[in-house]
Design brief:
With 337 residues, the protein is an alpha+beta fold. The chain has 15 helices and eight strands. Strands 2, 4, 5, 6, 7 and 8 form a six-stranded antiparallel sheet that branches. The protein has a two-stranded parallel ribbon with strand order 1-3. Strand 4 and strand 5 form a beta hairpin. It is globular. It starts with 5 loop residues before the first helix and ends with a helix.
């Protein structure tokens, strides 16, 4: 069933893409932090509530795209722009609205498609990476005080989320720090997410209070889903190891080599890829390499010839042809723009 709010959410999302005020605000804060490198490097590994939330906010909702990052200044060390695992002082969930993304968590790599919902507690070290220019992820973030002051009575009746949220602040046990759900279009949990997006963007009177009620209702709905439905195996250990191997050997990996590494047949691995990722291996690895190439072109001064070599292309012409097919511009045009 199609979500009745989808058209409105599409319009709101495009509005934010055109005017990403929250990204501009964060970049201004980070520019100030960079004046004290040790503070900035600490911030990259641990996001505080004061950095993310505006005064008076307990819940924040924003769409995450592949926003172009400011170029690294000559005086900035490489550590300022290198990918890094991080955790939060607050609680986060993100919903994959469109496209494909990767979630790196501990030694796992999850490839997530539209409808995937990840819930993180404060102990979860992770990194989320959008693949492709059309990937859209909605982040829903909650202050700890809101959980304690407004949702504790609900969580007390819910063993699943009570342990997940509350115990993460006080316990060092080995319970999971991330929970994965797969939502169907139009199901109640997705409707709550869409309503949270709408309410945050509208910013009307008592919006924060209403959003906290929606968030609590979403947790109840997710708990019901967890208890009552057979969960999909979105990231079996074997496939997670396959994805981790690809992430480490992405420039040279081949289907044949992957099959030899994991002792699988090409047909079996191809079926597994189609089932887990929604596309075949060749399309996935091409998308992966082009995304890495785009990052190298915008975040480093490496020559185009070197970028082609890093991405596994022996000839620059082949790389440029593939890049233009995927991105819509030549590497030179993309770097200039």
């Amino acid at each position: 069933m199609e979500n009745p709010f989808k058209a409105e959410i599409d319009a709101l999302t495009e509005e934010v893409r055109r005017r990403p005020d929250h990204i501009v605000r964060w970049q201004e804060k980070e520019a100030e932090l960079k004046k004290t490198p040790e503070l900035f490097l600490r911030h990259r590994k641990f996001f505080t509530e004061d950095f993310v939330f505006e005064p008076g906010e307990d819940i924040m909702v924003y769409p995450d795209f592949n926003y172009p990052l400011p170029p690294r200044q000559p005086w900035e060390p490489p550590e300022f722009s290198e990918p890094v695992m991080h955790s939060h002082e607050f609680f986060e969930m993100f919903y994959v609205y469109s496209g494909v993304c990767e979630c790196l968590y501990e030694d796992q790599v999850y490839t997530l498609r539209p409808g995937s919902l990840c819930v993180f507690n404060t102990r979860c070290r992770h990194r989320v990476h959008n693949i492709g220019g059309e990937s859209r992820i909605y982040n829903i973030m909650l202050r700890r005080r809101a959980l304690f002051s407004d949702m504790l009575p609900i969580l007390n009746e819910n063993d699943l989320f009570f342990s997940f949220f509350i115990d993460s602040l006080h316990s060092d046990d080995s319970r999971p720090n991330v929970m994965l759900f797969e939502l169907e279009p139009g199901e109640p949990a997705e409707l709550y997410i869409f309503n949270l997006i709408r309410e945050y963007r509208r910013g009307q009177a008592n919006s924060q209070s209403l959003m906290k009620l929606m968030y609590a209702a979403l947790l109840v709905e997710l708990s019901r889903k967890y208890m009552n439905e057979p969960r999909r195996d979105t990231a079996s250990p074997d496939f997670a190891r396959i994805m981790a191997y690809i992430s480490e050997n992405w420039s040279q990996v081949t289907l044949k080599g992957l099959c030899a590494e994991f002792r699988m047949s090409q047909s079996g691995l191809s079926r597994l890829f189609k089932e887990k990722v929604g596309t075949d291996f060749s399309e996935y690895i091409r998308r992966f390499r082009m995304d890495r190439a785009a990052r190298l072109l915008t975040r480093t001064g490496v020559s185009i010839d070197k970028v082609a070599e890093i991405c596994g292309y022996s000839e620059r012409s082949s790389f440029e042809k593939e890049f233009k097919k995927y991105i819509g511009q030549t590497p030179k045009q993309y770097r200039t723009n």
